[in-house]
Amino acid sequence: MNPSSRPASSSTRPAVSPNSRPQVNTHTKVLDTTHGRILCIADIRGRLSGLNDLAREANAKAIIHTGDFGFFESNSLDRINDRTLRHLTMYSPLIPSTQRTHFLAPDNTSQAIRATVDISLLSEFPLLLSGQLKLSVPVYTVWGACEDVVILEKFRAGIYNIDNLHVLDEATTHCLDVGGVKLRLLGLGGALVPHKMFDNGDGSATIAGGQGTMWTTALQIGELVDTAQRVFDPTETRLLVTHASPGREGIMAQLALVLKADLSISAGLHFRYASSYNEFSVQSDLEGFRHKLIAGKEAFDKVWDSVKQQVDTVIDEHQRVLLDKALSVIERLPNVQGPEEPSWKNCWNWNLCDAAFGSLVLDVKDGRISAELKSQGFNYAYRRTATPSNVVPTPNSTTSSLPNATSNPPTKGSTPVQAEKPLSPHPKEVKSPLVPVASGKETPKESSPSTPAPKSNGSGTPAPPSDRAEKEKQKRKEKKERKDRERTEAKEKEASTSEEKADPALNAPVPAPASASAPSPTPASAPTPAPELKSGKATPEVPIADVREGMKSPTTDSTGARTPTSKRSPRHPWTLFVKLPQQSTEADVRTFFGGEAAGVTKVTFLANKGSPHQRARPFVYVEFGDDETMKVGLEKNEEKMGEGTVSVQIATDREERADRGVRGGFRRGRGGGYAARGFAAAGLTRGSRPHTNGEARESAAA
User: Fold this and answer.
1) What are phi and psi of 348, to 5 degrees?
2) b vs e for 181-213, b when ≥16 Cβ sit within 10 Å of the residue's Cβ?
3) Residue 396 has what pLDDT?
4) What are the CA-CA distances from residue 185 to residues 26, 48, 66, 223 (Å)?
5) Mean pLDDT of all residues in the chain?
6) Three-state SS sequence of 623-645
7) 403, pLDDT greater than 60
8) 101 with 300: CB under 8 angstroms?
9) Where is the composition biased (Polar residues) (predicted)?
10) What's the rounded Cα separation, in Å, for the pair 537 and 543?
């Protein structure tokens, strides 16, 4: 209710005197006295033809829907604001994915979207209203957060009436007689927004909404309590249907207590899994449950204290009755010291995922209500294709830059060569640390560099156990044989080199065999003969040009993968580019997007914290697990964070270049492409050489 403009009418019931009690709008529907299945879904989002398909697949006698039904018609588009229209376009199941991508492109303005989108892309409700589409089973629904309040007012006034479609509201209740159970349906529509609970918007009665959105009001809650009290029957089972979740909203949980609900169904969280719980299963004790209710009460009290005087001056007597009932809900807190609250263990709750991702079926037979819960779930396939740059290292672990000895052992007679360092023309003879150890029980003791290793049975040292001595002896024998082979191969190599020097024909430059990615020598560069090895160890020849470039691994017998030749790692396919209004941490960013449930897999800051060149507004890349979670994150655009707003866009190369200010790339380090972009954003080059095309890098001072 908006106290500054006008008092809202108290309800949709006929006007009565304060002392009379108006009739409750209630209906009883007999579905099947022996056995029946009820399909419960959420967020059909205008794809109303899918209701018949879902009912047929579940063999359901009726459908209960928890909001975001798609109450829109052609003239609703003029009443929807730009932000809500973009939201509806993003999640409408009636828009093909390719067309949706075009609509949501960063350079596509709201005016362009409004000029292109028509009602057929947002909802099939006009088909239902005209009779072209008919519902095969009864559908009972509340309205959600994105609906046209004008259409709901027409249903409440009796202007709109559709076969098998029943709108549950604070003044209307239905009872389903099925499977030996009388199931009483009580519904509350709209999003729970505490600071709007006394604002009707464009609503003319107890409901509220405007610009394509709807929310719950205090008078709406009060009238639902009044309706439930009037139809109370101890032989019935009470099912509360809300759009907001009692699991998150303390006021909704308080409402369930006051209504004496046995079951509750809600939505509004848009997870890929539906949840089934009671408060006893998720709270450590009754005090934990009470704490959630107190948090909801405190949020309401802040609003109520600021508008109390204005509301008292505009409401009438009947509205005062409804307001008092709403305030009784806010004050309803379980007493820890008194008798145990029955709903603490007995009220069961389901929070549903969107209809495209899952559903709940209540199978009612012989008085028992069984539940069948189905969810699409999260997609973890992306983890199997994770690249090393996306893998977070395990704490207290080391990462080897070369293949380890177990997976890629060195070939006998060769020594691994590091690709990052040029070959020395006079390498020193060193003992290879990769000699395989025969026993994992104990590592042989290291000997002094100036003295030979002690023999297992030498004088002056204690003799080890017999089995260890045999293994040490076998190791020394294998080592000696390996050295003999290496010396023989070295002599053969020296002889071959001498023959090449003696024969000019053999000394002509010949292109060295290499992979397709290896650069070919230019005519100006003369071939450099390989340095002679004095150590007696045969080392594979590596072209010096390849080593200097650092673009590929050395040509050895190792089967290790070569380093990618691209200077920038491919971007994660589901990445958002975020501009933060103030200094923030990774935890702040994850919390802003919704915590663990948001599907954020990685957060990368482009400016290092504490750097003197850090930008006033940090730039962040946020990666998500799949396309849908990224779209949910994209909806956070222009939302508040601290004292400012956050800009969220789909990461593109254009934004990346605009942030870096130059076209050239940075030399890749261990951090991969994102690390290079982070140093560029901070004005650092991390030792990179100047651009070959003459473009100068921007400094941080600029």
Assistant:
1) -105, 140
2) bebbbbbbbbbbbbebbbbbbbbbbbbbbbbbb
3) 62
4) 10, 21, 12, 15
5) 75
6) EECCHHHHHHHHCCCCCEECCEE
7) no
8) no
9) 19-28, 387-417, 446-460, 553-567
10) 18
